[in-house]
Structure prediction request, 380 residues.
Amino acid sequence: MSIKRGLPTLLVEGPRYGAELKPEFERRTGGTWPLNIGQVYTTLARLQRDGLVEPAGEDEPRRPRYSVTEHGRVEVAAWFAEPVRRDAPARDELAINLALAVSVPGVDMRALIQTQRAASLRVLQDYTRLKREPAAADDLAWTLVLESLLFNAEAEIRWLDHCEARVARAAEDRAIAAPEAVPMRAGARR
Amino acid sequence: MSIKRGLPTLLVEGPRYGAELKPEFERRTGGTWPLNIGQVYTTLARLQRDGLVEPAGEDEPRRPRYSVTEHGRVEVAAWFAEPVRRDAPARDELAINLALAVSVPGVDMRALIQTQRAASLRVLQDYTRLKREPAAADDLAWTLVLESLLFNAEAEIRWLDHCEARVARAAEDRAIAAPEAVPMRAGARR
DNA sequence: CGACACATGTAACACGTTACATGATTTG
DNA sequence: CAAATCATGTAACGTGTTACATGTGTCG
Prediction:
């Protein structure tokens, strides 16, 4: 959806060639999400099929320049007016990874969480470093995107810390509930 | 990747039919991410092709039961040993939506952010309510998944609040830098 | 038996990536 | 001119969804 609506959004400011849309989209989002040039053309073809964009009048031969249609403007306006992803959240591979790991015997949860935490911390530090660079201060859009990534990375690390505490406590509870797992004097119950 | 590795992970505990894997996967993740049954079969076919799973010995006619291969066990172990998504973050439609909106004339950023905030707040409240239900306390995996969703929703709302402040400040800065936009006495510069 | 439900599987499509093909333009 | 580059487009594949088809068992 990001690209399906992002490309018409860029065309609202005027007709563009496919090759112009890729760097423009990336610039507006701070280069965080590199855009596949092949996907630009296939998406434009689908958008034209669906009536959101259309080839603009003859300008250069063999280079179709696209402009947004009235229907496209309506769709872009709707994209800004309606909240995104109200419904089911996207599958989070990290959460699924941890959730399945806790019930598989032989997985060292502490090591798993620490490995993930180190990776997430590196990502967070990368973003923090990026934010210090002067280029970030200029562009409001890029600032917002970068801070979204920062907030998400911070939440992920807090969650991992939370998981570690939870898992440790669950292990203690299991040790208490199943005392046969710890050394005991002979004659103890069970 | 979640399903491509999640299904072999479930098979580590023993052979299963395709129809058993869907509810099992959903139960382990608290029903947060409903799994398409069609995808279970296509994924199992690909996993068999790639040597991660194989049909277990003849049990019931016309119902292939799958078990994980040695290669599959290695892949599952690697999934738990290596951190997920170290590289580029997934495209965040909400962040892209806002980033593009700030540079399109005529978009009411304040209304946009408030609409999104209300939707995110509803999601957060849904998760908070779910957490109070007794079913959540039992299952450690489900608890971790739910808290992941909670942490992410909270981060999203904090980010939206942050965006609102940023956008408001940027609007003020623009008003100061371009005073012709506000009523001025005749004869003022430009 | 007929209706229904269920498990399995496939087809069609959307969306995303990588790689390659084609034609035009630039450049040595 | 020949080579390199660029813009455009397509093909193949992975992953995900929806819908349909097929066979099997159950139940009234």
Q: What stands out?
A: The CA atoms of residues 80 and 129 of chain A lie 31 Å apart. Chain A touches chain B through 71 residues (CB under 8 Å).
